[in-house]
């Protein structure tokens, strides 16, 4: 819900997808199942595509080609279904979309559409060899990145009334970095198919990589300040805080991809020592976050007994695990670190297990919603 006092009527917060029953004052309960699902669609639901895509790519890196291809086709279904619901939401529940765009906690969820498109593009390119589809998805992702970056940050900047830092900031803000780096990764991967434009595409990948890194410095400084100087309740430790690690993992992958794709580029060759050192810095930062987030998770669910139940935001916790697996493998190849060879497969299995549990939770939520939905 927006706290902008300039709006005359504030719509109630939308329910989670698949939630049963009508929504007071919106008329959603009188619509179809699809209409109710669209009304309650969380802006961050494209994290489902991100998570499925990166687990597929991790499976590909580990040599599980059948799993990787199966998840690619499944991800196409997820991507199409989510865009279908998104378009229905824009057409029939525009007030909810606008309210989400003005909300400090929910607006950043829209950024998941960018890595959703770009990770799917990487799947299309690397697993299926579908270069045209990969180009289409990169163009879509890059366009969305421009629109969402300047729409969301401008909207949140000019709001007349804003929440306190502790109420308006969470790990979900770092999806903006994931979005930026996903554009960089796919651009570098496509550079080999760009012909005479390869140098331009590598330059785009490089500048997006550097810009995403700077954005991480700005936002993580505020998040760490919020961690250590404000009261922290178990409910505050939402799953998107795993993106603290995931944003650095995809930054690692972007750096490694530049090194691997730019061997013939004069610009990249000049910057190889810098890119190697910075990529290793990003990987070390991602690695530092893992024990911290595990300890905080134990504190949340084990010590404070916070209930563990399905939330669409958990897809944002699956993605960093798979990304760490892929990023570690690619960095080890780009910088020649063979002793890291056991890390990547271990995190693939962890990510695959987390993805499976999240999918079971989603199926249960959808099944329960369909069974109890009013006719």
Please tell me about this protein's structure.
The protein is built from 14 helices and no strands. α1 packs across α3, α2 runs antiparallel to α14 and α13 runs antiparallel to α14 (343-372). The two termini are 28 Å apart. It has helices at 33-39, 47-61, 65-92, 94-102, 113-128, 131-158, 165-168, 175-190, 198-229, 243-261, 266-270, 272-303, 315-335, 343-372. Residues 1-12, 14-29 and 370-375 have low confidence and may be disordered. It is mostly helical and 375 residues long. It has one domain: Voltage-dependent anion channel (Glycosyltransferase, Alpha/alpha barrel).
In brief:
With 375 residues, the chain is an all-alpha fold.
Write the layout of secondary structure elements.
Layout: H1 33-39, H2 47-61, H3 65-92, H4 94-102, H5 113-128, H6 131-158, H7 165-168, H8 175-190, H9 198-229, H10 243-261, H11 266-270, H12 272-303, H13 315-335, H14 343-372
Helix pairs in contact: 1-3, 2-3, 2-5, 2-13, 2-14, 3-4, 3-5, 5-6, 5-8, 6-8, 8-9, 8-10, 9-10, 10-12, 10-13, 12-13, 13-14
Q: How many separate structural domains? A: 1
The outline comes out as: globular
Fraction in helix: 55-70%
Rg from alpha-carbon coordinates: 20 Å
Q: Can you tell me the residue ranges where pLDDT is under 50 for at least 5 consecutive residues?
A: 1-12, 14-29, 370-375
Query: How many beta-strand elements?
Result: 0
Report the major sheet: none
The quaternary structure here is single chain
The secondary-structure element order is HHHHHHHHHHHHHH
Class based on secondary structure composition and strand pairing: mainly alpha
Total number of helical segments?
14
Could you state the CATH homologous superfamily? Voltage-dependent anion channel
Instruction: Name the average pLDDT.
Output: 89
**At the first level of CATH, what is the class?**
Mainly Alpha
Distance between the first and last residues' Cα: 28 Å
Q: Architecture, CATH level 2? A: Alpha/alpha barrel
